[in-house]
Each structure stands twice: as C-alpha cells, then as structure tokens.
Design a protein that fits this description.
The chain is of the alpha/beta class. The protein folds into two domains: 2-98 and 184-195, D-Maltodextrin-Binding Protein, domain 2; 101-179, D-Maltodextrin-Binding Protein, domain 2. It is 29% helix and 32% strand. The chain has a five-stranded mixed sheet with strand order 2-1-3-10-4, with helices on both faces. A five-stranded mixed sheet has the order 7-6-8-5-9. Helix 2 links the parallel strand 1 and strand 2 (46-52). The longest helix is centred in the N-terminal third of the chain and has 13 residues, at 29-41. It is elongated and about 55 Å long. The mean pLDDT is 91.
Length: 196
C-alpha cells in the first residue's frame, strides 16, 4: 500500500525529478531511508534527495516549494508541529528500519565501558533512550542535530563517544565499541496541501 502511495507521488516520466527533503548531513538514518525509497522506485522515476540541517529546515523548504516532499522520522520529538501545519499534510506513513546503531569512537581511541559514566556521549535526542535500556547507570549526554553530526563531532575530537548509526560511523572512520541494533522506525512523507 505504501509503495502504491509513493508511486502516486512520483511522476512516471524519468525526465522529471522529485525533490525529497530530509535530515542531513550525509550519513543520517533519514538519508538512508530516503535512499531506500529512491532505490525502490528503480527506473520509474527520479527522487533527488535534499539534505537539510534540521527537520524544521525541511518543512520550511517544503512550504516554500524548494522541495516537493519531506521525510521525517516519528522518533523526532517535535514531529507534531508538522502535522499541525495547515499548509502540509501526511502523504505516506510507512515502516523502515534504520541502519544498525551503536556507541562509536575514533579508531585510535582506547575505550572502556566505565568511560560512559565519566565522559559525555554526544547524540541526536531521538536515540538517547537506548542508553537507559542498555546500561543501568546515568550517562551524561550532549545533543546534536543528527546522528551523523554526532559522529562528525567525535571524528573532529569535540567528544570521544557518540551514539550513531553504522552509515555515519563508516563515513567518519569511527569504530563501534558497543552495538545496539537496527531501530524499527515509522516515518512520514509530508507534501504541500496545494499540490495534492
């Protein structure tokens, strides 16, 4: 059913592309899901992925016609504001698993688990509850705009440990020191009401 809904949003003309805004920078789970959507279309249509620094930036780009659709993870704590926007509407709601998540450090960093309780872990707010479910002590967390940005913060030496996904860890040459799992997530693709 979701596939038919996606097909309805994408022109059959391979010469025409549809711009899909989602959370960047490269390596986010949002980009991963957007790429999966694009691959599922095959030769049928062209889905051009546009990465923004925040989901709010995606919605602003959608409202202003800079992108045609916007993809948002339901784990995003302020997604309700997008549902309330009278200019936007949900076009598709679907399930898509993220890449594997874990705690990542630089490859030359000597990690031990006690560091989790002494140092700050950087993460996007959405996956922070993973710490509570996997460790029985409080972990101090700093937040970033995305899991990919968290990985970049570790690669740049601002922090030593990040919650991130496998795609961002590879991109920033980090190693997992603790693996969680893929996250079974639901997503919404928003469109402008005038376009539907």
């Amino acid at each position: 059913m979701e596939r038919r809904a996606l097909d309805a949003l994408i022109p059959a003309d391979p010469e025409k592309s549809v711009k899909l805004g989602t959370l960047g920078p490269r390596g986010t789970s949002s980009e991963y899901i957007a790429q999966s959507m694009s691959h599922s279309l095959g030769d049928r249509g062209s889905l051009r992925i546009v990465l923004k620094d925040t989901y709010e930036g995606c919605m602003e780009a959608l409202s202003e016609g800079q992108v045609d659709l916007a993809l948002v993870a339901h784990a995003y704590p302020r997604i309700n504001a997008f549902y309330m926007n009278p200019r936007l509407e949900p076009a598709i709601v679907f399930r898509g698993n993220t890449p594997e998540y874990g705690l990542a450090t630089r490859s030359d960093f000597d990690f031990d688990e006690d560091m989790l309780f002494r140092e700050t872990v950087v993460s996007h707010p959405a996956p922070v509850p993973l710490l509570r479910y996997h460790f029985d002590r409080t972990v101090h967390v700093a937040t970033s705009n995305s899991t990919s940005q968290a990985a970049r913060d570790v690669a740049d030496g601002r922090y030593d440990i990040a919650i991130t996904n496998a795609q961002a860890a590879r991109q920033h040459n980090l190693k997992f020191v603790y693996k969680f799992s893929r996250i079974p997530m639901t997503w919404t693709v928003f469109s402008r009401k005038a376009d539907r």
